[in-house]
Amino acid sequence: MSEVTIKARANGPYKVEGPVRVIDADGNEFVLPEGSAIVLCRCGHSRTKPFCDATHKRVGFVADDSAPRVLE
Known about the structure:
This protein has one helix at about 55-60, and strands at about 5-10, 15, 40. The termini are far apart. A hairpin with a 5-residue loop joins strand 1 and strand 2 (about 15). The chain is mainly β. It has a single domain, classed as Ribosomal Protein L9, domain 1 (3-Layer(aba) Sandwich), CATH 3.40.5. The longest helix has 5 residues, at about 55-60. It has one helix and three strands; from the N terminus they run βββα.
């Protein structure tokens, strides 16, 4: 099985690569394109939640989520 990678794009969505299932609040599974990455909204303004529709650009979403640096 392939590894799943979730990448936070700068001031944008989460890009999810790998075999995943997305389930709604009622337990229904979204049909996803096989072999393609998906992008999940994190600005809260997408009209296609949970997926990104690029509204983050229009609303000026700014994220503050860099991974912490470990000091040796």
